Amino acid sequence: MDRLRDLPYEDLDFAKVDHHRELRKGFPEVIFGLGKSPGQIASIADALLKQSDRLLVTRASPEAYEAVHSKIADAAYDEIARTIAVDRRQPSERKVVSGVLVICAGTADLPVACEAAVTAELMDCEVERVFDVGVAGIHRLLDQKDALNRARVVVAVAGMEGALPSVVGGLVQVPVIAVPTSVGYGASFDGLAALLAMLNSCATGIGVVNIDNGFGAGYLAAVINRLPQPQLD
Amino acid sequence: MDRLRDLPYEDLDFAKVDHHRELRKGFPEVIFGLGKSPGQIASIADALLKQSDRLLVTRASPEAYEAVHSKIADAAYDEIARTIAVDRRQPSERKVVSGVLVICAGTADLPVACEAAVTAELMDCEVERVFDVGVAGIHRLLDQKDALNRARVVVAVAGMEGALPSVVGGLVQVPVIAVPTSVGYGASFDGLAALLAMLNSCATGIGVVNIDNGFGAGYLAAVINRLPQPQLD
Amino acid sequence: MDRLRDLPYEDLDFAKVDHHRELRKGFPEVIFGLGKSPGQIASIADALLKQSDRLLVTRASPEAYEAVHSKIADAAYDEIARTIAVDRRQPSERKVVSGVLVICAGTADLPVACEAAVTAELMDCEVERVFDVGVAGIHRLLDQKDALNRARVVVAVAGMEGALPSVVGGLVQVPVIAVPTSVGYGASFDGLAALLAMLNSCATGIGVVNIDNGFGAGYLAAVINRLPQPQLD
Amino acid sequence: MDRLRDLPYEDLDFAKVDHHRELRKGFPEVIFGLGKSPGQIASIADALLKQSDRLLVTRASPEAYEAVHSKIADAAYDEIARTIAVDRRQPSERKVVSGVLVICAGTADLPVACEAAVTAELMDCEVERVFDVGVAGIHRLLDQKDALNRARVVVAVAGMEGALPSVVGGLVQVPVIAVPTSVGYGASFDGLAALLAMLNSCATGIGVVNIDNGFGAGYLAAVINRLPQPQLD
Amino acid sequence: MDRLRDLPYEDLDFAKVDHHRELRKGFPEVIFGLGKSPGQIASIADALLKQSDRLLVTRASPEAYEAVHSKIADAAYDEIARTIAVDRRQPSERKVVSGVLVICAGTADLPVACEAAVTAELMDCEVERVFDVGVAGIHRLLDQKDALNRARVVVAVAGMEGALPSVVGGLVQVPVIAVPTSVGYGASFDGLAALLAMLNSCATGIGVVNIDNGFGAGYLAAVINRLPQPQLD
Amino acid sequence: MDRLRDLPYEDLDFAKVDHHRELRKGFPEVIFGLGKSPGQIASIADALLKQSDRLLVTRASPEAYEAVHSKIADAAYDEIARTIAVDRRQPSERKVVSGVLVICAGTADLPVACEAAVTAELMDCEVERVFDVGVAGIHRLLDQKDALNRARVVVAVAGMEGALPSVVGGLVQVPVIAVPTSVGYGASFDGLAALLAMLNSCATGIGVVNIDNGFGAGYLAAVINRLPQPQLD
Amino acid sequence: MDRLRDLPYEDLDFAKVDHHRELRKGFPEVIFGLGKSPGQIASIADALLKQSDRLLVTRASPEAYEAVHSKIADAAYDEIARTIAVDRRQPSERKVVSGVLVICAGTADLPVACEAAVTAELMDCEVERVFDVGVAGIHRLLDQKDALNRARVVVAVAGMEGALPSVVGGLVQVPVIAVPTSVGYGASFDGLAALLAMLNSCATGIGVVNIDNGFGAGYLAAVINRLPQPQLD
Amino acid sequence: MDRLRDLPYEDLDFAKVDHHRELRKGFPEVIFGLGKSPGQIASIADALLKQSDRLLVTRASPEAYEAVHSKIADAAYDEIARTIAVDRRQPSERKVVSGVLVICAGTADLPVACEAAVTAELMDCEVERVFDVGVAGIHRLLDQKDALNRARVVVAVAGMEGALPSVVGGLVQVPVIAVPTSVGYGASFDGLAALLAMLNSCATGIGVVNIDNGFGAGYLAAVINRLPQPQLD
Q1: E220 and E107, same structural domain?
Q2: Range of the domain at F16
Q3: Rounded to two decimals, what is the model's pTM?
Q4: Is residue H231 part of a domain?
Q5: Which end of chain C is more exposed for a tag (fewer CB within 10 A), N or C?
Q6: Contact state of D213 with B186 under an 8 Å Cβ cutoff
């Protein structure tokens, strides 16, 4: 344990735990659950929580949650987002900022959308969720005008033809983070169709993240939403 | 000349002119102008018009039109559609059917959209044109509700993210023919992004044609629009 | 239940059921069975049937059917098409229109072809089926001249080199909906070869749908087949 | 001219000029110069400036500038960015906000980086430029620590292996907009390599735009930089 | 000149001329004209003819022919095939074998088809040509039954959807060499669509060569056609 | 059973058995085992053998063989080739022709190579097998000069970089059928690397079949090997 | 056994064991464990060790190790590298050379990095390992300056955006072997993103191997590290 | 001029000249000529030579050479390699090391091969050149056994199927640097086929560089060839 004072990481044999990331980036290291055993996830989670008061595991199976929960009693599992989260800060330490809207096209996009929402919430953003507003029923989206107007940053999640960010980008003046998902089949090529569509959006003010990268989108949304007030020259 | 009575095609040395296509498909052979010299186009056009009273050349340059026009005085050129058309039928022979709507996302899609419109018109359809209604300004599209409701078949043309057919498909109950265009740059990969988006549309009732294939879309629209009344069993 | 009167969808927690789609598109929401548990499919099906007298589930496993059947006694399963269908309308309510021909290249294409046929039938079309007429035995296709001549719209299904729609498109004057399937191996790249072939068809009057999208093809065929009589100007 | 009062766009025959975009998005329509003749660009520019006090043309050739300049005396050309810009607002109308850093990997990326910078400047951001700091000479980048710390949003532009945003993303806590360029040859596949690298960045807080899309990156940076102060709940 | 007796090649500074290939493969080295200057082609041709009595240049421009013809008076140019050929053997030396059929789908495929034919002829095969028999007009192909039955080996050339070899392969019992061409646009991706279709043919007895490789197809056809009589065990 | 006299195929409900293929192509229909249940394969095999005295099943699992063997006692299984074969002809009916050489690069290519060999043998060719002679140990290949010289047609099978057909093509004067295999990992992209290499071979006299298509290669080899003696004009 | 004296390989029925490779390349044949059964691996390993005093199996499962270990008591298993290694040489026979540095970006890259390290060690190189120094935390890499300066050849392993070799290549004057891994998801396309990035590196002195090819990188590193002293002219 | 003492680069307005690269990497910055005007190249060259006694310009046109030569009288142009080189060191300063062999498959690969050779020579390596030894005439390569045995590092350059490095890698024990070229057409996809082949080589000891990257290969070869003697532990 003493060596942790000297080294910026703890060696768990199968993984180096980077305790300094929180200093550099303002958020502790996040565990990507895919391809790790429940036991490995629990051990890394345990080590991270000794140095931080927040924890996030993404792509976590129920089995992974059980393993983590047996070690960390206050770990919370979101079944749809497939995330494990811990936040041990005092309410007074948290300065929650409203303004993140997470919006998705279909119910199959929910896991990615919820991963984005959970991430932004753990980074002290209030998140509004609007789901199942795909462009083939455009009125469902237009009915959400108030939510769109309230937003300071929008995370727009869609698979298949990935058109949602284009329509949203034409309706709002704030930044839009586009998240393609692997929802679809055949010529969706596991999300490639949605990714290309988003990169070629005719709307302005859009940045794209990797296919199914809900975490990355939620993280970027929180960073944008929490930027301090601009300085007028 | 006599051999034309025996053979279904005329041999121009550099091309066999298929005079029987009109019988099989209800429309004469169409000249694809790209890669042919003005002189070649004029010669083929001349030969075709000896057996048919209609002519269509697509992807025709102004130079090609000059060459054709010098031989065929009643040839009409559409500069935007890049088409040369001749229709020598008597008005009484034409039974024009209304119902085709050609709609496009941006001004750069005009050549493809107009090629579709000219084709459908030569096939005796009345064509309504609604241009520059891309999804990033969704209200421009929604303002066209009347035109959409009037349509019996919609040709929806778009480059970049190719989202227009999805939104249109959600608004109408009639068939939508989606035409991806090569408009865009970078990750549009010459129209691949729009093509994949259209194939993965979450809306129903959509059929897709090749990139920039305005002729194919106009042809299919006319065939659909002119189907005789269905038989009720 | 009361809220269903106010909201256009019912919230099943894991899915929002869109009861208004039938009004917009003339057909109720369809359940895409892939990736949903039998229990989830049964619950969504149950909710949909409370608002509609028709139901269609595609890509449904036998297990999904069992779950649905235990709740919905009149649900019918098509093992080859992998569809679950319910139609509670009175015979007098149905105005069946003949004219849809579904044709496929090989026996491995049957599931996609049958999905198209079942869809069009539920949309009140009489469907003629001609299977196993791939282009490598062209006489089998040419023997179907009568069926081809009877058709008002043809759904042509093929994997591997995807050549069937081109040959059919050269034989008929009616619209052809081309459906590439993922049948093949190696350089078929899960249906990409057939998809590209169909998009590049040298025949006219062809619209293409996504790989394996039998439902989309059947839907489009029915929409075309049921278009009301054209208005002559 | 009168009809401009009624219609949200002006019809120049070859283009519809969208005068309402400024209301919707806070910035007037931008002219994408590629594929338009100098004369066309000048005409559209002229029409836009009748309704707006700002103008931006991207991908503008020197010939395009000459045509524009002959009509619009106060048009300014940036040879490297290939932009034509006009800003007729009074200094008192402009509230310039500092905080945008545009950084690029190699000198060949300059046109894209400068397009981003010019765009953000016209949107009232003060832009700091740091060029030629590719990752193969990492100390050049690390020497820019002060600039990185000053930034509220970073636009990171790179071709070839596209690694710059990953390194920058690990050094800053603010949003990073990654712009892949088509600089490279062979297996860069016109910017695909850089694009994929940026989408797969192991750093957090990164959004990606299309290949060579300097305008889109500058626009998004300005929108982020000018977000009003967050509301604490 | 003396060193040619020792070395299997002649050094022209910009190219090594391989005089031994004729021994190894039964046919002299062939000059691929693309990317070589007329002067270079003429020099290589001259050197080759000093060691061989046959010469073949492919992808030769009219300018290349002029340069060759000025040095080699008996060189013959085929404008469509873009080949330069010389054959100085005595008629008695040539044992011509009939049996090669070259067939193509559209007139745009002619250059590739003729390159195949010219190659096989120079390799002492009698070649029958059947052009413009694409599958969208299947009766044109079926009318060629006699030619198909006469053939000992068929070269089937097609662009776009590349379906011709599949249909031909179903009609004949002899080997079919499939040649995809780059004829097409959009999703043909410069011949990729046709190439994939041919590799996935549902017919048997088909071998595929590179896109536009008429020479390779003609060569292979000649090698097959000239195989000596099989030995019965 | 009687209807088999009238119809060219037998309807097994899940498959139409094409009994006429043997007449058209000289070889009965072949069963592609992948994706069919052992029971289905056995039923189709049984039906086919009622009309033919030969049977070939490819991609057959041991379980499929058991099912077939229980119905067809004389069925032979090749474990490496994964084929089930039956040949009930009298020895006097078979006219075996020597001349097919099947050669492969690595031991992992054996299943594909053996599938080719078994196919050619069932088509009355004597097949010589030379395995594990990849180009990275070129002397192993050069040691096979006698076998190469004996061959009338060579089937060259290779995965990974797919270089074997190029080297073989430079050593022989007879046709070479190149078979890419999916052996490899990473940038082999399931055989794409080998496929592209073979299509781009700098050697002449090579035709390529689909990835892993041992059957197609063996079939083509047999058709070539059994071509009757050429006619000299 | 006697035939092993005559033949350069031993026939194990399912594999030919190449005993001469050690002479040609200086290292015995390596067993690629993927797709081979534990029993097959053990048999080949046994045969190889009869002719060599070294053995390397890559991609070996624990089950494969058990099978090998039951036959070969001194076989050592590396769980992370998934390698089985045997070295029966006397210490005096080994001339170990220091200078190979294996460096990787993330913990998920460890299996590939360790495979490289184990391979180079078995080829008599002393290997220094530096793991988890991805470019998003550039200081972790810069802290390794001493290790980088000590290295005579660096193996740099990374997935996702694959930027590590570029940064390393800018810091050292020695050869860098870049190994892309399949670590990542979505647009990493199983390592393609990292592969393209490494091929397009803006740094000099870099050679790339196949995705996940730790063995190939370790082998090349050892060959470079053990090159005898250059001859000065 | 004075600022050059303080800054590691000189600002030429259109380019920053990096004078410190020579210290970091042992070789001065190299000018990539493609896309730069002759005047720009000459100016950068001039600036670089003020700080270094060596200069290398790659992809230089004859016009670029003229511009450089007018400023730098001792600049030497290699027409085939398209390089401009200057070396002002005293012969005594150069310690030339023999051992680099540059080998290529066809004459069309010469520009890339020569670029590699010129680069290695400027880095004080003696380079042996063996050209036009493609694998389709394997004996030409085997005849070069002496050259192969002399080499300490081989640069193997090939387009089309890119098989040369595999064969060479099987013959030598030294490192092989594989350079794919864009030579080819159709399914070579501008060098992709050769690139994939080289990455999948079944031979060991091979590192790959980008398509047409002769400079990168020559640089890496020189770095390997000049590694100081290994330290035995």
Answers
A1: yes
A2: 3-90
A3: 0.94
A4: no
A5: N
A6: yes
